[in-house]
Amino acid sequence: MTSEATPDTEIALACGQQRALLSPWGAALRRYYLLEENGSESDIVWGYAGGAHKKGGQGDVLIPFPGRVSEGRYSFDGQPLQLERNDKEGPNAIHGFVRTLPWTTQQADSESVAFEVQLEAANYASRGYPFSLAVRVAYRLDRQGLTCSFAVHNVGREAAPVGVGFHPYFTVGTALVDEAEARIPASGYLEFNDRLAPTGKVLDAQDTEWDFRERRRIGNLRFNHCYVGLERDAEGMATATLQHQGSGRRIEVVMDRSFSAIVVYTGDAIVAAPRRALAIEPMTCATDAFNHPEWGLKRLQPDETFTGRYRVTHCLL
Question: Mind listing the pLDDT tens digit for each residue in 86-105?
Fold first, then answer.
């Protein structure tokens, strides 16, 4: 199944009471909600419909680098490279290339859809990324929730630096995220400078206001943090949660071993809608991993495929 995508192209999925709205424009998750018996809609992912209505990166796919690359500069295998500095917060590169590209819809049915796009070195070398990737992102609804999976294949002749991230915002029905409680399963976070680029230091969350390994109220904290040192269960999964006793709702974001970092953002800079929802962003590497490959950067060999998935579940308390 193929079609020419536009910013307004959208595909609806349904499973039981669950509804999801996806777009081949950027392979974006635009909405995920429950259709209640009375006809009302309860958002799980705070989102939008229609390309012009997106706020703050809602539902974006972030490939081949999630987060910022400081000054847009990095080196790979001894080659200095310069990315476009397209970050409104400072002279950095941000969030990769694919979120404003038309992807091809490869398969779709009532409960699932898959999108594909290819980055060619010939087209991206001048933009600081002389590598070729074939990318697939798929979404599926089932009784447990929404699963998002990715596969990045190196179709070039050289090793390529690769990071994958996703940018959903979550809500449990509160007017502001201040009222909700969160749990972030991470022992540390990156120190940022005033341009929101990492300084190179990883700070210990223990005994700080940013330690959310035990669920607690968000309050007036202004999150824009990249968490690392993820804590995992026996199956290797890391689970972040958002809940609110008043609404009786709870969301879990369950990430497999491919994800080594989580960005948490309260959306304070979103014009006309600050702090409406909490971004919990699964990332396979930390911010600026192109300059700190020890922070989870994937060195993808020719003909190698990098895969992973995360799942969003929801329940009543």
Answer: 998 889 999 999 999 999 99
Q: Using a cut of 0.70, tell me whether the model's pTM lies above it.
A: yes
Alpha-carbon distances, residue 184 vs 12, 233, 241 (angstroms): 30, 14, 7
User: In this model, does residue 153 exceed pLDDT 70?
Assistant: yes
The secondary structure element, H or E, covering residue 129 is none
Query: What is the distance between the alpha carbons of residues 169 and 177, in angstroms, rounded to a whole number?
Result: 11
Are the C-beta atoms of 64 and 97 separated by less than 8 Å?
yes
pLDDT tens string 263-317: 999 999 999 899 999 999 999 999 999 999 999 999 999 999 999 999 999 999 8
Classify residue 103 by its DSSP letter.
P
What is the chain's Cα-based Rg? 19
CA 125 to chain centre: 25
pLDDT at 3: 58
Tell me what percent of the residues of the chain surpass a pLDDT of 70. Answer: 99
| Cα 134 to Cα 116: distance, rounded to the nearest angstrom | 7
140-145 LR contacts (CB < 8 Å, sep 24+): 140/111, 140/112, 141/13, 141/14, 141/15, 141/18, 141/20, 141/111, 141/112, 142/15, 142/111, 143/15, 143/16, 144/311, 144/313, 145/18, 145/311, 145/312, 145/313, 145/314
Question: Alpha-carbon distance 302 to 156, whole Å?
Answer: 6
What single letter denotes the amino acid at residue 33? Y
Q: From 196, 198, 221, select the one nearest 211 (Cα to Cα).
A: 221
Gap between the Cα atoms of 263 and 227, Å rounded: 6
Contact 11, 105 (CB under 8 A): yes
Task: Please give the distance of CA 157 from its chain centroid, rounded to a whole number.
Answer: 28
